[in-house]
Amino acid sequence: NSDRTWATFTQEFHVHVWAMLAAAVVAFSIGLYLASATVKEERNLTFSETFLIVFGALCGQGCYVLFRKLPSRLVLMTVLLLQVVMLAHYTSTLVSALSVPPALPAISSISDLLRNPALSFGTTGDTAIIGYLKNSPRLDH
């Protein structure tokens, strides 16, 4: 179960969701680049600047550019809204995954413990105690 604990932080989003988030960063970067290029009063940004702004907004960071016109503001507000929804989903799923432990194997007797090869019993294998427990007629009840 230790692998599940370490993978919990990236497992909250399926691979398809991570791919869609990457595509959204590229799409919003292109949209912000076009919005800043078409509006004359707006500062012309390079694609790398718009990529940094969009990626930073999705990571919860601020923006170092002041957008004055509606097209650029709409793109940036949409990215910020996506960030809020993404963070709410990620946090709720992560808290749920960490608060509910994984199911333990069903063990009702010592014989169940001895029959399951994935579980260790706490003694050294091939000892007199293990031999006694395996051959004991009372364990089958």
Cα Rg: 28 Å
- Category by helix and strand content: mainly alpha
Helix-strand string = HHHHHH
Reported for the largest beta sheet, the result is: none
Please work out how many helical segments DSSP would assign: 6
Question: Which oligomerization state do the chains in this entry correspond to?
Answer: single chain
Proportion in β-strands: under 5%
Descriptive report:
Belongs to the glutamate-gated ion channel (TC 1.A.10.1) family. InterPro entries: Insect_Ionotropic_Sensory_Rcpt, Iontro_rcpt_C. The chain crosses the membrane at residues 15-35, 47-67, 73-90. GO terms for molecular function: ligand-gated monoatomic ion channel activity. With 141 residues, this protein is an all-alpha fold. It contains six helices and no strands. Helix 2 packs across helix 3 and helix 2 packs antiparallel against helix 4. The longest helix is centred in the middle third of the chain and has 30 residues, at 70-99. It is rod-shaped, with a radius of gyration of 28 Å. The two termini are 31 Å apart. The model has no long low-confidence stretch (mean pLDDT 81).
Q: How would you describe this structure in keywords?
A:
mainly alpha, 141 residues
Record the SSE blueprint.
Layout: H1 2-11, H2 15-38, H3 47-58, H4 70-99, H5 110-115, H6 128-135
